[in-house]
Prior knowledge:
Blueprint: H1 7-10, E1 18-19, E2 36-37, H2 54-62, H3 69-80, H4 93-114, H5 126-140, H6 147-156, E3 178-183, H7 187-198, E4 202-208, H8 212-224, E5 231-233, H9 240-245, E6 251-254, H10 258-270, E7 274-277, H11 285-298, E8 302-304, H12 312-322, E9 329-337, H13 341-344, H14 369-375, H15 383-392, E10 401-408, H16 413-422, E11 438-445, E12 450-456, E13 468-471, E14 474-477, E15 482-485, E16 495-496, H17 498-503, H18 507-516, H19 524-538, H20 546-553, H21 555-564, E17 570-571
Parallel strand pairs: 3-4, 3-6, 4-5, 6-7, 7-8, 9-12
Antiparallel strand pairs: 1-2, 9-13, 10-11, 10-17, 11-12, 13-14, 14-15, 15-16
The structure holds nicotinamide-adenine-dinucleotide.
Amino acid sequence: MPVRRNDHQIQFPDxxxxxxxxxxxxxxSVEKVVATIEMPSIHHxxxxxxxxxxxxxLPALRDTTIPTVSEKRKKAAIMAxxxxxSCIAGGSRxxxxxxxxxxxxxxTFEVCIRHSFCLIMESxxxxxxRRNMDRRLFIKTGALAGVGASVAGNMESSAAxxxxxxxxxxxxxDDRSVNLGFIGVGLRxxxxxxxxxxxxxxxxxxxxxxxxxxxxxTQKTIQKAGASDAAVYxxxxxAFEKLLERDDIDGVIIATPWLWHTRMSVATMKAGKYxxxxxxxxxxxxxxxxLVNTYEETGSPCMILENVCYRRDVMAILNMVRREMFGELLxxxxxxxxxxxxVKFNNGSQPYGGGVEFxxxxxSEAKWRTDHSVYRNGxxxxxxxxxxxxxxxxxxxxxxxxxxxxxxxxxxxxxxYIVDQAGEDHPNASVRFKLGDVITTVxxxxxxxxxxxSHDTNSPRPYSLGFRVQGTEGLWMDLNKSIYLQGKSPExxxxxxxxxxxxxxHPLWKKYGExxxxxxxxxxxxxxxxxxxxxxxxxxxxPLDAYDAAAWSAITPLSERSISEGSAxxxxxxxxxxxWMTRKPVFALxxxx
Length: 593
Ligand SMILES: NC(=O)c1ccc[n+]([C@@H]2O[C@H](COP(=O)([O-])OP(=O)(O)OC[C@H]3O[C@@H](n4cnc5c(N)ncnc54)[C@H](O)[C@@H]3O)[C@@H](O)[C@H]2O)c1
């Protein structure tokens, strides 16, 4: 049967040609499905570095029926952890897990129908699908103890690398302490150190920074907590490589300026350690591929430390999205709308305001972040917004970003701020900032949703990430906590979302809400560190991974390119190389991490 592609897909000449014979409402009629990947090593990515292992990956894709040793270990480890409460607040764990899997698979195949563009990869071979169906039946009848955990284990089985090669991590053992290293202990890095020191299952083994003051302040924090001094790596910008040579470190938290993130994450993975990288993870499409390729080659997980995914209201809404309370998702909005003028400029001795210096004369982020506003015009910081939306929309796990367009407003705010604060004659008043004050990006997903992402950091305004989640049954907006659900809310009237947020509070927050009190950003920072540490303890992939890091961070270079080409559409590379069809949601499925 010839493959028909819609107008959008026709733009992508490299898209693998795929065909299927029969797709039924409940997934795939396995006996009838024939699938081929005619151009296996080619995808419609751009700027993609040549990758010698493409062909080698194919057998791994095809042969997921046989779990690898590491997958068996992962499953066993997760099953051992399985005695937990219902994974979705208020529901039976088994029913809800079943629903998640079922609706996931349904949607995966619905998209194939909708786009007449079906990839049933050979990994969905009849045997595999039948096994899954049998397993679902098994789950439904409750025959398997610790079923939720086994589901989680299975959800991982389609991840790319077959081994998690992290030599110092004892897989499946969760009662050990985790040794962490920190690269970049400025304001954000030190806040990670502070939270990790509060845990009784972690040691701060080594820290690295090029700034002596940052090192001294961190050691002070460590001493105050009564822990032993950490080994120090400093002196030059590549001192982190020495830290990575240590054989007693399980994971590394990277909180350096953006241009170092990918390089340090790649080096960390190559050293066989878990990488936890601050946002955004990458600056170019090539760097996005570097993260993914290194993850696939080394098997060392890379977690993008996107804390907003763990915000309490965001997680309650996730709970509601998974229960399909908004119906089928149609449209989402998000953004980084934060007046950063006093962050981009300061007086060189304090992090916020007091002057209009940036670059070498400034302190903390103004030292390096402001330069991006001078030289780049695009969404420079997309992940706080797109992270949660990516999770709602199952990006890389049943869905993917297809393309975006971006438009920039004129650039006025930063120059005006300098002039207002320091006058026309200040040397920085002559700097021309390239970054438009408001960048608006519209993303189209494979499942047919639209997503608006805003970047708005140069003008006076209260902070807001501007979330909106809209489906066929209603919508939520975080601004003013408004919700409308057909059949529940009074007709044509907004309701206060508070009661819903309480009722659907995520199990993770129910369990750890008190512990998280006082952790940064309303408590959500606790959860992102917790997820990183718990993944290391269990020797499993992190719930936000290299594919998420790549897809979310790619918005920056793609938006730059779109703006420079007059808001032209830019296709997203498929960083999963088609695995988005078979990868399943893993983020916060229960109350563990
Ligand atoms: N998730 C969040 O909510 C959140 C909040 C703030 C910052 N961040 C992110 O955290 C990162 C760090 O931000 P920050 O506010 O701490 O900035 P910062 O400037 O205060 O800290 C960066 C540190 O990195 C050090 N550094 C620079 N180059 C280095 C190198 N080659 N080797 C070792 N150390 C090096 C600097 O000396 C500095 O101490 C950024 O990516 C930022 O976007 C995230």
